[in-house]
């Protein structure tokens, strides 16, 4: 089955460009479009996309609030890929903190757009780990370490989280730690559960903001 995508952007040309790029792929289907975050919830509930590619800045409801709303109200919510003009935008970091799974630059090459959608849909590695680290360094809140201490990660789970923060996939982590990939998946699931994180991106942001991993 192809990955299904909902496009949300107030610029028709951006939506048209993304649709053209994505629908050229045999494993990706664009199932709908919206011009503002306020229209996302009914479309997500009706279309059940795997990924929402959502502009971070829109006139009525921006991508940050729309992300929060989707994750708060939709059962089994889709992955959310924030679409932005500038990768060092504080709005991008706020969207990631709100629960977005990654971000995509509007000037990205077609191959990068396709890669971003597939990677976010599969959820087994971190999109643009260097950029996320830079955003955390610039816009992170520096929350206290207590939250991560309460998670009581085992030594192996801590090692997995550090490798996740470097952007490694499950297969790469398995090779680095010389363990099976199912073992890595089990550790990743445990890390997410203990941190109360929706996915790898939120776990990594928590690691940066707690000081467990240095963002610089």
UniProtKB/TrEMBL annotation:
Modified residues (4-aspartylphosphate): 55
Keywords attached to this entry: DNA-binding, Phosphoprotein, Transcription, Transcription regulation
Domain HTH luxR-type: 146-211
Coiled-coil annotated spans: none
GO biological process: phosphorelay signal transduction system; regulation of DNA-templated transcription
Domain of life: Bacteria
One Gene Ontology MF term: DNA binding
SMART domains: HTH_LUXR (SM00421), REC (SM00448)
Protein name as catalogued: Two-component system response regulator
């Amino acid at each position: 089955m192809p990955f299904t995508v909902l496009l949300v952007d107030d610029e028709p040309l951006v939506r048209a460009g993304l649709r053209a790029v994505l629908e050229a792929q045999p494993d990706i289907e664009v199932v709908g479009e919206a011009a503002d975050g306020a229209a996302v919830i009914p479309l997500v509930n009706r279309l059940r996309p795997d990924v929402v590619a959502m502009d971070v800045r829109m006139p009525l409801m921006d991508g940050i609030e729309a992300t929060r709303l989707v994750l708060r109200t939709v059962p089994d919510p889709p992955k959310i890929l924030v679409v932005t003009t500038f990768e060092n935008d504080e709005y991008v970091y706020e969207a990631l903190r709100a629960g977005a799974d990654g971000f995509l630059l509007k000037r990205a090459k077609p191959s990068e757009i396709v890669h971003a959608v597939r990677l976010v849909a599969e959820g087994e590695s971190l999109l643009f780990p260097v950029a996320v680290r830079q955003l955390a360094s610039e816009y992170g809140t520096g929350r206290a370490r207590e939250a991560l201490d309460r998670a009581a990660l085992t030594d192996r789970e801590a090692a997995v989280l550090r490798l996740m923060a470097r952007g490694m996939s499950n297969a790469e982590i398995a090779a680095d730690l010389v363990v099976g990939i199912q073992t890595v998946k089990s550790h990743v699931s445990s890390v997410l559960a203990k941190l109360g994180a929706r996915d790898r991106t939120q776990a990594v942001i928590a690691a940066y903001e707690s000081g467990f991993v240095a963002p610089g």
